[in-house]
Amino acid sequence: MRIPVPEMLKERAAIAADNPVVPRDAATVVVVRDGAAGIEAYLLRRQPTMEFAPGMYVFPGGGVDDADRNAEVPWAGPPPSVWAERFGCSEDIAKGLVCAAVRETFEESGVLLAGPDADSVVADTSSPEFQAARLALEARELTFAAYLADSGLVLRADLLGAWSHWITPIFEPRRFDTRFFVAVLPEGQSVGELARESDHALWAPLSKVLEAVESGASGMLPPTFFTCKEIADLAAPEVLTAAEKRIVRAIEPKLVEVDGELFLESDTEGLS
């Protein structure tokens, strides 16, 4: 996959290539459901004042915190060792990625991939208590491990699937080493109030999303767009099964020059 580098980024690319920022581990989750126009994903539009990806449509997600890696989290489903093998990382990073994926999804959408035990999931997260917990987690007044333990809940790692692994290009001043997960909206749950980092959110049919981005009506970073394209032809119940068959390897878009023009090139061959 090759896309042109905008003029505004060319000078930054030349400078940053000599002094790249070390990327931070991060997780993002494609939460899907079936809709009248096909599979839909929950998308957030980032505030225009944000330093990273302002105004872009993104999936819920964010950086891995120390507490995600180090706290004792009530856990059900595949252990960190399984995720470490899928993502090609250490077990402590894998644990942090899964915890960050579930925590950030709850903070940013109100969807909670947790339940009272390994065979159940929270059926409704619309109460004021859940909203208060989201705000406390976002403000870092509460750790996710403590919230789960105090609420008698366990993280349901089995409700996630490993999809892909993207690293922010070298010229960006803020870089992330991001693992993409997929999940199906749990029955009975719905999204809650808008997260503070976003100014708009919606359940969007992926067929319409691709049309909007290709026409220039909506903005989306290449990894998000490419992920939408990969999932668009599936039904929501098929997503986790498809994830099991995925080859997950790191994709880091590189700058290439073709006929005097700069492009970002990503090696996405053979991933599905």
Write the layout of secondary structure elements.
Blueprint: E1 2-4, H1 7-16, E2 24-35, E3 38-46, E4 57-58, E5 61-63, H2 66-70, E6 75-76, H3 80-87, H4 91-109, E7 114-115, H5 128-138, H6 144-151, E8 154-156, E9 161-167, E10 176-184, E11 198-205, H7 206-215, H8 222-231, H9 239-244, E12 250-251, E13 254-258, E14 261-265
Parallel strand pairs: 2-10, 6-8, 9-12
Antiparallel strand pairs: 1-14, 2-3, 2-5, 3-4, 3-11, 7-8, 9-10, 13-14
Shape: globular
Rg from Cα: 18 Å
- Total count of strands: 14
Largest sheet: 8 strands, mixed
Secondary structure tally, helices = 9
Q: Structural class, from secondary structure content? A: alpha+beta
N→C terminal distance: 14 Å
Return residue spans where pLDDT drops below 50 for at least 5 consecutive residues: none
Q: Overall pLDDT, averaged?
A: 87
Work out the strand percent: 25-35%
Query: Which series of helices and strands comes N to C?
Result: EHEEEEHEHHEHHEEEEHHHEEE
Q: Estimate the helix proportion, in percent.
A: 25-40%
